[in-house]
Amino acid sequence: MNIVVLMKQTVDTEAKIVLNSDGKIDTNGVTLVINPLDEYAIEEALRIKERLGGEVTIVTLGGDQATAAVRSALAMGADKAVQINDPALGEVDEGMAATILAKAVQTLPHDIVLAGVMDTDNGSAQVAVRMAEKMELPSISSVTKLDIDESLATAKRVIDGGLATLEVTLPAVITVVQGINEVRYPSVAGIMKAKKKPLTVLKLSDLGLDASNLAVQAKVLKFTLPIPRQGGKKLPGEPAEAASLLARLLREEAKVL
Amino acid sequence: MPKGIWIFVEQAAGKIRKISFELLSQGRKIADQTGEPLVAVIIGEKVANLAKEAAEYGADKVYLLDSPQLAQYTTGAYTSVLTKLLRNEEPQAFLMGHTALAKDLAPRLAQRLGVGLASDIIDIEVNQEKFLLFKRPVFTGSAFSFVEILTKPLLATVRAKSFVASEPDPTRQAEVIEVAAEIDPGDLKVILKDVALIVTSRPALTEADIVISGGRGMKAKENFTILEDLADVVGAAVGASRAAVDSGWIDNQFQVGQTGSIVAPTLYIACGISGAIQHIAGMGASKVIIAINKDPDAPIFNVADYGIVGDLFEVVPLLTEEFKKLVNE
Ligand SMILES: Cc1cc2nc3c(=O)[nH]c(=O)nc-3n(C[C@H](O)[C@H](O)[C@H](O)COP(=O)(O)OP(=O)(O)OC[C@H]3O[C@@H](n4cnc5c(N)ncnc54)[C@H](O)[C@@H]3O)c2cc1C
Ligand SMILES: Nc1ncnc2c1ncn2[C@@H]1O[C@H](COP(=O)(O)O)[C@@H](O)[C@H]1O
């Protein structure tokens, strides 16, 4: 089974976000990690490989710093990686990312492509499904359980209020949610081995693409920071008094009950 | 010639979802500002009766795609019929709720139409050139981005409770246009085998006016009954932190937070939840937040309007009694 995993490096969700003088997100000094939802995709890929054999290839689109995330994915157990890193790329929107990733995945044997449902930086939940469309592959999103029997994949997908069971003949793109598995930690041996695993770095031209032909369709005009919510009052007294005061405040002051 | 602000009216089991009423109401305001018609799209089987309701919430025109093949949502069938409709009619904007359905449908549709998509937006700025600017939370809610879509139709998915549903006007009428559902066979590669819905008498997390959540402080699965008792007094939904979900005390789909449901009820009660950033990303937009926690320094108090420092096993049952009194007043 040739398994490809789309992985993005993201900012640690705990990081304090500030804007630089250009009004952009300042990533200086923030911890960068594998997008937590992509970790589930990597874990699922490794489990499929353990069951059925095959190879796990990580594909990422990102700058020099993203190599660290690639090495972490290889340390978890992935076999090899492809990183598209081209300084000619400026702002990349979801459609562009999908176009580039599609080209890269097309160069690889792929029976199944796994991805996170969204990246925690951008929260857009678009790139993997867009890539599927670009490659004319079927996709199943938000999968919480995945079974593969020869070339048939059966997936449980989270829907509003429950679960849907879907079937698809591979190749297909599957996006996963938290809960599908528990992610392993890389072992020391895994970290050592990762250093020697093949990482191919590609420019857009290697994929037959040209930055000037890739246009942003969803343009970020500016970023702002939220005004932090103010903590209110802690209600005094014994639990019974506090509970009674709270009920009264909710009715009379907050007017929500 | 402007072709309107279009709203995807999402239905489940023949009932329009709350988010769609919110979108129709806000869409009506936008359409009035830009001088365009408000158009609803309804997809399903035997859903013709929903057109009237869409009209009451502001639609001037309703496109109806009613077919047994559309009885249940599948990515392929919905993409197929919507692509044809949007290509033919060329609306200015097509807005959907950021539901599980649209999270799957919208990127597929956007890519097929070859257009940009602003997902999970929380506000829409209408500017003079009839151009809509979309505000969206990014970086776990630690920042907002303002996105301009440079292609038409402007596609966006909207987070629940970002807009308020207005009162329906029973005298409003809409022109109803039935569209034949033509589905490309190539779009039927994924086969839906089964849909299992969790049966509950409580409202959906994202739709509820009151959400009561429990965290690691709940200590055991069976203790969630004290939250359920409180919830049932006021018709609330019950949610949980990831720690409670990971402990196996409550099903995954009740998780509130960045990787769970994002909720914005009028009242959110956090019981035994510390207030991690990823949890706050999922409930920080609630109107009023209450925290019940025995640790006075728990970060949840920094976002709570009212806090009770105490043992939740003592406080929650007392609160249930107090709420009962209020409800009976
Ligand atoms: C990428 C990523 C995504 C995540 N997504 C989510 C998400 O979507 N949702 C989410 O919730 N978390 C999420 N998390 C996890 C998050 O970081 C926290 O670990 C989690 O929210 C903690 O849950 P908790 O507050 O219930 O537990 P804890 O942090 O352990 O807090 C328990 C609290 O209960 C209090 N307590 C204990 N006993 C009592 C008692 N008897 N009475 C009153 N109070 C009591 C304690 O004082 C404490 O404050 C995510 C983490 C990551 C890294
Ligand atoms: N730059 C990228 N490189 C590799 N994979 C990506 C990239 N951006 C997004 N993805 C994949 O697409 C998923 C959805 O991302 P997004 O649409 O950005 O929320 C992520 O979880 C990744 O698996």
Produce a short descriptive summary.
The complex is a heterodimer of chains A (257) and B (329). By secondary structure, chain A is of the alpha/beta class.
Describe this structure in words.
The complex is a heterodimer of chains A (about 260) and B (about 325). Helices cover about 25% and strands about 30% of the residues of chain A. In chain A, the strands form 2 sheets. A 9-stranded mixed beta sheet of chain A has the order 9-8-7-10-6-1-4-5-11, sandwiched between helices. Chain A has helices at about 35-50, 65-75, 95-105, 125-135, 190-195, 240-250, and strands at about 1-5, 10, 30-35, 55-60, 80-85, 110-115, 140-150, 150-160, 160-170, 170-175, 200, 220-225, 235. Chain B has 8 helices and 18 strands. In chain B, strands 7-11-6-1-4-5-12 form a 7-stranded parallel beta sheet, sandwiched between helices. The model of chain B has no long low-confidence stretch (mean pLDDT about 95). Chain B is of the alpha/beta class and about 325 residues long. The chains are: A alpha/beta (about 260), B alpha/beta (about 325). At the A-B interface, helix 3, helix 4, strand 7, strand 8 and strand 9 of A face helix 4, strand 7, strand 9, strand 10 and strand 13 of B. The complex binds flavin-adenine dinucleotide and adenosine monophosphate. The site of adenosine monophosphate has 22 residues of chain A, from helix 1, strand 4, helix 3, strand 6 and helix 4.
